[in-house]
Structure formats: structure tokens, C-alpha cells
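Two proteins, back to back. First:
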Amino acid sequence: MADIRALIELVRAPAAFSVPGDVLAGAAAAGRRIDARTCGTAAASVCLYWAGMALNDHADRFVDVFERPERPLPSGRVHPRTALALACGLTAAGLGIAALAGGVRTLIVAVPLAGAVWGYDLVWKDGPAEPPAMAAARSLDVLLGAGAGGGIGAMRSAAPAAAVVGVHTLAVTVLSRSEVSGASRRVAATTAVLSGGAAGGALAVLRHDRYDHHDHHDRRGRRPVPVPQRALAAALAGLYTWRFGSAQAAVARDGRAETVRKAVGAGIISLMPLQASLIAGRGEPLAALPVAAAGPLARRLARKVSPT
């Protein structure tokens, strides 16, 4: 029987702090209120994320004997059957919670998201399709928040936010492919361009009025985002750029595997201010602040349990 700490390491528990922000960003972009339905959808998303982490280590268990022997499976602290059962159970839980939270409209996105998670771990990982597959999964996670109770129009409204999160994820995944071998300056430059594009995309979203499904006084259903909220969103995008950019600069100076792993961890944690920027930029500052505040907590926990 695996101990609790080993299971926490298996699912990369601290990294799950980066997941609810996807759903909240999607809901905010679609003009949906952050309510119990949204929170339930976020819980479903966390379950699917943890399922992917457990399945990842199950799929990598033979390679990790040589490359990451400290992980729970190669170290013998978790049995492979336990990891696979956990991945299956968390996937089922995620889909079940999604159905309860948003019904068929949420499942329309949750089922492809679960398929993307399993496809990534079992088929696309370590191949040329790995980075875009992971980016697609995180983009679907954003659309999951828009689809909770919404339709095609809501998901269309959330598409720019989904693209921003997808580009960031592409950068982190490209960098993560060098966690064992180390990264060249070319890799660091590539990921820097991608993360810069993500920050620029978050700022570009600010130029558009937010879509509000609950505004019955404006036929277009659009309302301008107040200047203070735009300023908050811009500041959060800047914080994201500084945190992830500093880590990428470190890789450019020293591309050893240890530095790359730290940069990947920074990329995972820095997603939270980016999500918060997207949420605030769509007129939901009260929902953005907890997402941004989760970043320092996740960084503290990451010192005890690796998010990569």
C-alpha cells in the first residue's frame, strides 16, 4: 500500500494549483458568473489533471528507472497497478463531477479533454506531437470553464483565452523535453518567444470588451472593462513575464538539466498570474486575486513536492 506522500508526489499535487485558473479564465471570458457550477467544473478539471500525472508516471516507469529514479514508481514506493488504478479512478471521477456540474454541455468538452490526457501519455508523448498535444489539452481545459452551462457562443468567446494558455503550455512543454539532457540557448530562446506571445495575447484580450451573457440592456451583450481592472490585468501579465522570463534567462546562461527542471517548475507556477490576468481582464477581479495568490503557496509547496 503506497503512503500518502508517495501518492502526492505521483500526482504532482502542488501543480494542481495551476488548474482551476483555466476553468475560471474560460468562465470569465464567456461572461459567466463564478458560481458553484464553475467550482464543480474546476474540481473535475483537477481530477483529470491528477489522472494525467499518475498515468504519465505509469507510462514512463521503465524509462524513469534510469532518468528519474527518485520518482514514486521506479523507487518502489508506488506499485504500477496502483498508479494505473488511480489514473482510471480519477478520470472517472473527473467526468462524473463534470456531468454533475454542467451536464451534457460540460461533458462535450470534458470527454475530449480526458481523451487528450490519455492520448498524450500513451501515444503522443516523446514524439513531435507532444508539445501541441499538451497545449491542446490545456486549451480544452479553458473551454471546459466556458462550456459549463454555456453553448458554442460561450466557447467561441473563450477561444482567445484558451489560445493564450495553450501557447504558454507549448513553451513549458518544449522546455520540459530538455529536463534530463539539458537545454541549448536555442531552446531557451524558442520558449521565451512563445511565453512572450502568451503575455502579448493576454494584453491583446484587454483591448476587447468583455462578453456578458447576463446583460439584457445591451443588444450586443458587451460591456467595457473598467480601467482599474485593465491595469490589474496588465500588472499580472507583467508578473508572469518576469517570473517565467527570469527562469528562461537562467536556462540561456546555464542549460544544465537541474536549471531546466527549475525553469519548468517556474513555468508551471507562473501560469497562475497569467490566468489571473485573463480573468481580471474580463471583468472578474475578485476571482482573479485568489488565482494570483495561489502562486506563492504553490511555490512554497513545490519546495517539498516537485511539480514536474
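And the second protein:
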Amino acid sequence: MAAVEKNYHHGDLRSALLEAALATVETEGVAALSFRQLARIANVSPGAPYHHFRDKNALLASLAKRGFEALHAELEKSCSAGSDPAQCLRALVDSYLRFARTSPKLYNLLFLPEVAREDNIDLIEPDAMICFDRLKAALGRLDTIAGEAELHERALTVWSLLHGLVSLLEAGPLSRSMSAHAGADLAARSAMKLALA
């Protein structure tokens, strides 16, 4: 226990709790998260997590921040600045859908109402906006004369399309009749039409 306490005082406990929480979310879902369980995994007292997170919603917001960072990393890998704009948008769409498909529980956590509470928004909004701006930049490369407000609206529409498609493919009434590949094709075509509208 002495070694754990030493690490805790050096600030390692927060990272350990986040790693344990992320693993729990990915394997069991958000409902399975509890401070008592995380404290047991980290081998600290039940009250120790409260030194780093005011409550479960603050913990979820910290996980969402990590999730948006991971999503952004995927989007960044999808295409380079010099690639064809149309191919870049398609790659961006594929990356978004792949992230949602390979990390579904973490993806769903990003959009929980508890995460977007007013007292959490300052933590997660910057990383969410980096993802949004990445999409907006890709749309701007396809239509170089569109204004900022128009690109913002198109990016919001494309993100809404992607998020809705993820929901339909995951558990909606179309989940059995549409493959992930067909969904990606549909999303890419729709995003292209929106970008050039």
C-alpha cells in the first residue's frame, strides 16, 4: 500500500483511475463504473478518487476528453494536407465510422447528456471542437469559396449525418439491412453532396 500512496502523491493515481475507467467502459459499459470499483482496482481507499474527480460526471467528462483526443488522432491519420480533397473527405468519413465501430462504448460516452453538463463543458469542448474543425477544413478544401458560416453549417450537418448513421448501424431498424461498408459509402456520398451544395 505504501508504494500506491507514493504514486498517488506523485499524481499517478489520476491516470491509473482513468485507465481503469476506460477499460471498464470498453468491456462493461458506463453503467458499470463506480468510484468504489475503481478504488479497488487501483488499490486505494474508496475516497481517494474524489481527490481527482468531484463525482462520476467529472470522471465521465475526463474520459470523454480522452475519447475526443483519440477521435482526433484517427481523423488526423486519415489524410494529409496534400491529398486529393475528395479522397480526404472520404478517408475522414471512414475514420470517423471506424472509430465509432471499433470503440462503440467510448464513442457513445462522448455524447452522453451527463458529459455535456455545464460544469464539464470547458474540459471537453476544446477537443470536440478540434475534431469539428478538422471536418470543416476538409469540407473547405472541396469548396474554397464557401464562407466560414456556410462551412460551419455544412460541417455540423455532416457530423449529424455521421452520428445518425452510427446510431442506425449500431442498434436502429436498419442495422441488419445495411452493412458498415454500405453505410460508409452512403455517408461519403452524402458528405460530398453537402460539401458542394
